[in-house]
TrEMBL record:
GO terms for cellular component: plasma membrane. It is found in: Cell membrane. The keyword Cell membrane applies. Belongs to the glycosyltransferase 2 family. GtrB subfamily. It holds the Pfam family Glycos_transf_2. This is Glycosyl transferase. Residues 4-167 form the Glycosyltransferase 2-like domain. Keywords: Cell membrane, Glycosyltransferase, Membrane, Transferase, Transmembrane, Transmembrane helix. GO terms for molecular function: glycosyltransferase activity. It comes from Coprobacter secundus subsp. similis. The chain crosses the membrane at residues 229-255, 267-288. InterPro entries: Glyco_trans_2-like, Glycosyltransferase_2, Nucleotide-diphossugar_trans. It comes from the Bacteria.
Length: 311
């Protein structure tokens, strides 16, 4: 059995030495044939140089280097497209997901004869209150909005087998929300509980902007409910308008004098309807933008260089 480990790296020079040592120790101890596919996602620091020195002395290290930063999900996708193992493990470079649990996940995979072992975060060390609370809220909102139910508190850290890898390679969509896609596929999936550590060195590479992007890829990729929101909001505003019409007729008939009335209610109505309209146009825009990107059919990533892959 051959094990592929897929590690996306973006500006990870601070942590790579430690990661490499820990990963290789663990993988060697399993006794399996293995490859570590390190994807350099257009890093601007010494990441590629450090990775190349690993690849020179260790043929189990394979490098895919992008022409620029294409983002975490695309880096993992490239690894999944190019790995040759019977099973593949997706894991971060920063050691937040401890590599020492990989052999345990392989054991679960063998014992349960399943297709996916997905890692669920029991505890998350060293993360800001903001990140913890938004992550918790997000996974639950996604479940509420989507027609499928996704496991909560689960990232991309998981083990997948050949069957799932082959299925994944047939997915043509460009905006991939990997954790969602894998769960959407079905097959036999088993949770594996673990404690998430602190980042071993360096800082998070997920800017607030990147977090928002990932979150919206998840929601707009797996739910059509936001589109239906327009109908609900429209219904509410029609009801409010009806009440106002009745009120206006009442005033016309029973009002004592003809003073200018209703200035504030007019402004409120205009603002309220304008807000609803812009909001729903924005939602439409998200979906149309997605259609636009899919029809352009551009590649999700561009590989500049591959090292240690036999052609
Ligand atoms: N990453 C990447 N491209 C990016 C951002 C992040 O390949 O544009 C990688 C990063 O090197 C790490 C993983 O994705 O291996 C997760 O990123 P990070 O640990 O910074 O995110 P966090 O754990 O803080 O959410
Ligand atoms: Mg991290």
């Amino acid at each position: 059995m051959k094990l592929s480990v897929i590690i996306p790296c973006y500006n990870e020079e601070a942590v790579l030495e430690t990661s490499y040592t820990r990963f290789s120790n663990v993988l060697q101890s399993t006794g399996y044939d293995y490859e570590m596919i390190m994807v350099n996602d257009g890093s601007k620091d010494q990441t590629l140089k450090i990775l190349s020195t690993f690849a020179q002395k260790d043929k189990n290290i394979k490098i895919i280097s992008f022409s620029r930063n294409f983002g975490h999900q695309n880096a993992v996708t490239a690894g999944l497209h190019n790995c040759s193992g019977d099973i593949a493990v997706i894991i971060d470079a920063d050691l937040q997901d401890p590599p020492e649990v990989i052999p345990e996940m392989v054991e679960v995979y063998k014992k349960e004869k399943c297709n996916v072992v997905y890692a669920v975060r029991n505890k998350r060390k060293g993360e800001s209150f903001f990140k913890l609370i938004t992550a918790k809220l997000y996974y639950r909102t996604l479940n509420y909005l989507s027609d499928y139910s996704f496991p909560v508190d689960t990232g991309d850290f998981r083990l997948v087998d050949r069957k799932v890898l082959e299925t994944f390679r047939q997915f043509p969509e460009k905006h991939k929300y990997l954790r969602g896609l894998f769960s959407w596929m079905g097959f036999k999936q088993i949770p594996f509980y673990y404690n998430r550590d602190e980042r071993a060195a360096g800082e998070t590479k997920y800017s607030f902007q990147k977090m928002i992007k990932l979150a919206s890829v998840g929601i707009f990729g797996f739910s059509k409910k936001p589109l239906k929101l327009a109908i609900s909001l429209g219904t509410i505003s029609i009801l409010v308008a009806l009440v106002m019409v009745i009120w206006i007729i009442y005033l016309q008939i029973f009002a004592q004098d003809n003073v200018v009335q209703g200035w504030s209610s007019t402004i409120i109505t205009i603002l309220f309807l304008g807000g609803i309209q812009l909001f729903t146009i924005g939602i439409l825009g998200e979906y149309i933008g997605n259609i636009f990107d899919e029809t352009k059919n551009r590649p999700e990533y561009i590989i500049q260089e591959k090292i240690n892959f036999e052609e």
